[in-house]
Amino acid sequence: MSSSFALFHRNQTASVRVCISRSSVGSLECGGTGPHSDAYSGFSAPNDHQRIGSLERELEELFDEVKRMIRMGNKSDAIDLLTANYEAVKESLNAGTKGIEEAAILDVIALGYMAVGDLKFVGSLLDLMKEIVDNLKDDAPRLDSILMHMGSMYATLNMFEKSLDTYQRAVYIMEGTYGKDSTLLITPYLGMAKVLGSFGKATKAIKIYQRVITLLGSSRGAQSKDLVVPLLSLGNLLLKEGKANDAETHFTRVLDIYTKLYGQNDGRIGIAISSLARVKSAQGKSDEAIQLFKRAIQVMKDSNYLSPDDSILEKMRVDLAELLHVAGRGQEGRELLEECLWITEKHKGKEHPILVTHMINLATSYSRSKNYADAEHLLRRSLQIMIKQKGTDDQSISFPMLHLAVTLYHLKNDEEAEKLALEVLRIREKAFGKNSLPVGEALDCLVSIQTRLGKDDSELLGLLRRILNIQEREFGYESEEILVTLKKIVYYLDKLGKKDEKLTLHRRLSVLRKKYNQMVNY
């Protein structure tokens, strides 16, 4: 066993021994399977070597110290601490020592960088860990736990194939050690199911979720709170797959479990009700969905279960606002969006980047109601915040900027609208390429503005041809999206006296119109 490097804490060093602990199934209700959820919780299997427990305590102390630094706002200190430990273990690796101890240390360091939010370096750490674990035998102590952490981190980095491979090895090891009916399999099963659902393997994911529910139901009982996470996860996946009725069954079961355990007024009831609201929305039952969302939000408020600015509660308000707009109740929807903005300003400050989403949502609502002046005010604020955060060339600023250009067009401020649209075009061409869909969107806006400004017809025709080429590439030569663009091109060809070309495109336009009219009639 290696003892050539040490785990560094702020004011001390410690000799290296070894180990990683397994997250217990008991943490399921709190959130599930994130890479740094109870990563070093102290749960131990019965036959660990003595040396494993010693390093486990040191690793747990290190991870706790990193989390404490982050909570106190000392991210730079946390990174320094992680870097010191990385340099130490790197020396051991360079010396040729690549055992379970080194994998364990790298695991904690990677989890620490995940907690800090530095995902770029995590990928490099995972490469080192993979090189080690690929050469370890399956009976290496705590290898299964390290593999589970790796699977979760790979998933966070959207490296789904590697995540799945790693989870599968962990499951193979654990099934051999604990048996195929052990609840210790729940954590890797949930990780695998989430990964499978993330890259189009919904059928396999559904089977695994059902397996988890069966395992927990038989060992913990049909009303166990541990069932909530897999039931919600399965319901969400079914809803995503368009199986709203099946999803409703699982969400109803969650509501039943929470109601029996905590009563009618607990905040967790609100989460279950909001899930059912999304089902009703997917079923086209807007009025029922609206009532359920309102009830869910009220329960959350009355119970103080979550902070008013919590992202879960915020999403409920936004989803309800969207439903209200669709149902023709725009004023109610705007009031909710205004509440979202006010709450975020109160808790985050008036310059926080998260405000931008709420400002754009509210500006969109104002624009729908023809209140372009208030929309303009919000969009200017959002653009200022984005530029301050990202600079003047980042592609993300082009979205509020284009929205502002459209709003100014409606306010007849065409000169400034054109200036902004041209800037959006410049930014997006650089970021996405000249033939990308975001560029086509900017060109479409620019054509409308320049048409009213009386720009040269030949220039406008050139822009429209660019839009058509982009749409054909993205949507197909006979797609419905190109109808409006073709109509505009035919108009300018006629205006410029290009009869032969106009005739060809007019025939194409007529064929497409007939095709889509027949589809509508059918």
TrEMBL record:
Residues 145-427 form the MalT-like TPR region domain. GO terms for biological process: chloroplast organization. Keywords: Repeat, TPR repeat. InterPro entries: TPR-like_helical_dom_sf (IPR011990), TPR_MalT (IPR041617), TPR_rpt (IPR019734). Transmembrane segments: none annotated. TPR repeats lie at residues 144-177, 270-303. One of its GO terms (cellular component) is chloroplast. This is Uncharacterized protein LOC106775153 isoform X2. The gene is LOC106775153.
